[in-house]
Structures are given as C-alpha cells and as structure tokens.
Write a structure and sequence with these properties.
46% helix, 10% strand, single chain, alpha+beta
Length: 190
C-alpha cells in the first residue's frame, strides 16, 4: 500500500460552517452525502457529514470517520492540488525534504503538512488520515522564502521537484484578491 499527501487549497472559514455557503443547504447536503458516504468503515457517514456540514456537535467517537469527512468537504469546497512528487512517499522523505530546505536556508518542517492537525476540531484520530494545515497567513511567508531561495543548490532532482510542488501549493494559497477567494492549505496523509 502506498502512502502520500493529498493537498487541498480551501478556505478554512468555509470548512467551519459549510452550510452557510450554499443556497439550499438541505439539497446540497444530500448531494454531498450521495457522493461521499458509502457506508464503509473508513469513509464519511451520513451522520458525520450532517454534523460537520451544519456545524453540529460531533457525536461519534471514530476520529478517522471525521477525518475522511473533512477530506470530503475539502474536495467539495476546495481544489485538490498536484501531488505527483508527494504521492507515494514514506516518512523518511519528509526528513530528506527538510534537509534540502535547510540547505537552501528555508526553515520549515514538512511534517507540519500532515501533523499540525485539523483546521477544525475533530475527535482524536488514532491512525489515518494524518491531517495538517497551513493558514494563508502562514503559507505566504513560506512561499516568499522559497521565492528567495536558490533551489538549484539541491543536487537531487526528486527533492527539487518536491520542493517546487510544495512552492506551487503555497502560491495557490497566496494568489487571492479577496477574503472569500483566499485559500488555506489542508493536507491529508494516508
């Protein structure tokens, strides 16, 4: 089985109360449930989707169900970003990327992409998905640091491409003209 990052550009404010961003919340919820709730042990359930969509208290104890529900909401209200250089990857890849970033003078721990936690409260997740996020105000300075860095100093082309792809994710988050158009970065690892 392969593991990797699934990155999404999505406005975190929308994830906090998705129903307020739709014209007909009940119909929209039914559409999302039909699309994402397959009644299996690992994906979103109709109940978890309803609770998160309407901002209700989360009643389930299965954190992974809510993690995959959050991912479904990111797919619905955001855009999945290219991840060819981050899927598949194992944990040692994060260390290699961090070492390469340090080499070019950029301070960032790429495990924050998957371990900084959910942008909205969820029950504890014991296994997968691992979730991390960067708010837009965090993504912009990191993107600027990568703008200024000399990536050509990195000799490993695979590392260079992973860093370029990460840089693209950060740029996607910073290319907004209005608050409603602004995106944060939410990543899932499974």
């Amino acid at each position: 089985m392969s593991y990797g990052i699934m990155p999404y550009a999505v406005n975190i404010n929308v994830l906090r109360s998705p129903h307020t961003y739709t014209s007909d919340p009940d119909d929209f919820l039914a559409w999302i449930q039909e699309r994402h709730c397959k009644d299996n042990d690992y994906g979103p359930t109709r109940e978890s989707m309803r609770e998160m969509f309407f901002g209700e208290p989360l009643t389930g104890a299965e954190g992974h169900v809510y993690g995959y529900t959050l991912k479904a909401l990111c797919e619905t209200f955001g855009a999945m970003l290219p991840n060819a250089n981050w899927y598949p990857v194992r944990m040692r890849w994060f260390d290699a990327v961090q070492d390469a970033l340090t080499q070019i003078g950029v301070r960032f721990d790429p495990t924050d992409l998957i371990y900084s936690g959910s942008p909205i409260p969820l029950p504890p997740i014991e296994d997968f998905p691992s979730i991390g996020h960067l708010r837009r105000d965090e993504a912009i300075p990191l993107g600027e640091a990568l703008d200024a860095a000399d990536i050509s100093l990195i000799s490993d082309e695979n590392l260079t491409e992973s860093i370029r792809e990460l840089h693209g994710w950060l740029k996607q988050c910073s290319n907004a003209e209005t608050e409603m158009d602004s995106y944060d970065l939410v990543c899932f690892y499974h």
